[in-house]
Amino acid sequence: MAVVAGVGDRSISWWREPTKDQWLAWVAGWLGWMLDAFDFTVFFLIMVPISREFGVPLTLVAGTVTFTLWMRLLGAFGSGWLSDRIGRKTPLMISILWYSICNFAAGFAPSFAILAFFRIALGIGMGAEWPAGAALAMESWPARSRGIMSGLLQGSWGLGFLVASLVYGLFYNSIGWRGMLWVGILPALACVYIRFFVKESEVWQENNHKRIEQQRMTPVGAAPGLSAATILTVFGWLAGAVVVAVALFFVLKAVAPTVLGGLVEPKLLSILLDDKLVGVVAAGFTPFVLPSLAALVRISIPMQLAIFRPPYLWNSFTASVWMTGQFLVYYSMIAMFASWLQKDLKLSPGDVALPNVLHNAVAFFAMGFWGFLADRIGRRLAIMIPAIIGCFIAPLYLNTTDLTWITIGFAMQGAFAGAIYALQPAYLTERFPTEVRGTASAFCYHFGAIFGGLVPPTITYLAVDRGMGFPQPMLYATIVGAVVAVVALALSPETKGIKFTSEVQVK
Predict the structure, then answer these.
(1) Per the CB 3.0–4.6 Å rule, which of 63, 262, 445, 469 could disulfide with 457?
(2) DSSP H or E segment with residue 499
(3) Could you tell me the pLDDT band of residue 70, with boundaries at 50, 70 and 90?
(4) Which residues fall within 8 angstroms of residue 242, CB to CB, at 6 or more apart?
(5) Longest dimension (CA), the chain
(6) What is the residue-wise DSSP string for 303-358?
């Protein structure tokens, strides 16, 4: 674990404590996340017109979101590993360029298959942005005010969605859904700022220097390198991962029908037990199993996999479950909201945009508030309180068809369930040592995305194919996600006051 920070110099205002370079690094993470949000959430606003133009079911269009989220795990793990090896800046720039180009290319798609390909590929760049941007911003920030700045950093996602909603409400009738995607190329300009004005994280640089010095002291025969032994080791771990994933797949296929049979109707159960879905879930849990099995036969564990072994295993597991709950809440609340207003209530682009704009504007300031409060009452309570309140706010706008109440209720939700994400950058990065911080936060964050990705097609199936409508599935899933998040947080460590250190902690 990192060491606990002292009280610090209270004689100066907290916003004057950071240096110019620390502010520039934070702005880089803030920009990357806001622009990531724009490119991703714009799709929520145009799923219905895309479904109509290509003549495909809305459930299939919503399923694209699922695969985009699953691809985030690939991009996040790769970016996390790379940011722990070469620094935070370069992976951040690569990720922004990636998702900008994919969104732009999707706008030219002549068929739904081509559009789905680029939107799914966008997930790699989208997932790659968060671990690099969050580590760069949070490592560079003083512990005293890290909570509030984490809230404002994560709140930039809401601003990205707000901008997407404004563009939709003001220009959709002129530029159509293709124009909405073409606008997504503009975030690439942020790379110029990052390249020339942002410095690499000093904590990472010092830690990397110490790791290199340790490697130089390692006996020549044990030094890392691209030797035949190293290649065989990599293939051995990959083979082991495949074996474990296949074993988990068959266990899930055998056990799930018995566990879920009395809770889920047969047709929905058959969808949830689809081989592709079960395979992804099995792959997600494989890292929690494989290193422990390897340790039983005395196989050396690579540093990046140390997060799946004691003393980090429980921390990694609870962080992953916490993120699963957060994603369930977000995609239950947000993903199909615009589709509900468009498909069921037949509202215009302006009427659809208004509650989304207000929700995200409120969420931005609320995340700053809960982040500020987290620096005083702790990370966990600052997430648990709004999650619980959000469960009582959701029925206000989901159990009505009156646009006024929908707008008021959804805007209010921005202050509660819409703001539970405020502490993700600070809390996730504070939970892990510097040398695995990028990898660990990337995995835990996007482990939740695997399960969050199931929400849009499941809600759409229940709403459209089963005739339930969107509100009730959205309400139930929001409450379930909030409960999962609160329970995981109750079992997690508190990190308020943690100070990042450059010392090598993972042996």
Answers:
(1) 63
(2) strand 498-499
(3) confident
(4) none
(5) 72
(6) GGGGGGSTTTHHHHHHHHHHHHHHHHHHIIIIITHHHIIIIIS---HHHHHHHHHH
